[in-house]
Amino acid sequence: MALRLKMFITLAFMLAALLYLSWRALRRHTATVVRLRNAIRTNKLDVHYQPIVDLRKGSLVGAESHSRWRSKGVATPADVSIAATQKPELACELTRSVIRRVAEDYSTYLWACKDFYITIDLTAQDLLDPTFANFVASIIATYNIPASAIVFEMTESALLDHKGAATQLHRLRAVGHRIAIGQFGTGYSRRSLIEPALPIHALARRYFQRPVNINNYID
């Protein structure tokens, strides 16, 4: 009897400890989601730019945009933070925040730079949002920048729903945006299958698993 009681107390203690740890983890997770959402909505995320150089001409032709979330003194890629929270709806809010910031920076610092472009990553959630193209158009108009100044880049995985993706991509391309696929060759798509179905301008050459003849990062 005493042995059973001891085992029961031990199991009860272990269960209580697990429940407490789960509660603490859920609380931290919820707090992270709230802080990240507030950072996005109050425009507190940083956007960093990585230069894109045309090696044939030796000139700077564009830049990649990368969002950073500074939390508790540590700067983390915002998309990584969103993936960790398992809240895909935040991805759409993040993309819109980045688009707004890029447009603002371009209109302030780069308005006189002819043909200079900035790439912005899109997610599957962005491509399936029926209001996305309208949002982009409103930002372009607000900041009075050319549509060609923003190039949208996505991975193969974001294109799995071709029908939904094609609708948004055709609307973006129709007003002058260029479309590129990054990390091409890491999934199962073939270039011959993707390009006829979707309005793709270029495949990011740095991601091909074998050499291909592509002259520019963006055509």
Commentary on this structure:
The structure is a single chain. The protein has a single domain (45-207), classed as TIM Barrel (Alpha-Beta Barrel). It is built from seven helices and seven strands; from the N terminus they run H-E-E-E-H-H-E-H-H-E-H-E-H-E. The chain has helices at residues 2-41, 78-85, 89-110, 124-127, 132-143, 162-174, 191-197, and strands at 46-54, 59-71, 74-77, 117-121, 150-154, 178-181, 202-203. Strands 1, 2, 3, 4, 5, 6 and 7 form a seven-stranded mixed sheet that branches. The radius of gyration is 22 Å and the shape is elongated. Mean pLDDT is 74; it is low at 184-197 and 205-219.
Provide a quick synopsis of the model:
The chain has seven helices and seven strands, in the order αβββααβααβαβαβ. It has helices spanning 2-41, 78-85, 89-110, 124-127, 132-143, 162-174, 191-197; strands at 46-54, 59-71, 74-77, 117-121, 150-154, 178-181, 202-203.
Describe the SSE topology.
Layout (H helix, E strand, L loop, with lengths): L1 H40 L4 E9 L4 E13 L2 E4 H8 L3 H22 L6 E5 L2 H4 L4 H12 L6 E5 L7 H13 L3 E4 L9 H7 L4 E2 L16
Parallel strand pairs: 2-4, 4-5, 5-6, 6-7
Antiparallel strand pairs: 1-2, 2-3
Helix pairs in contact: 1-2, 1-3, 3-5, 5-6
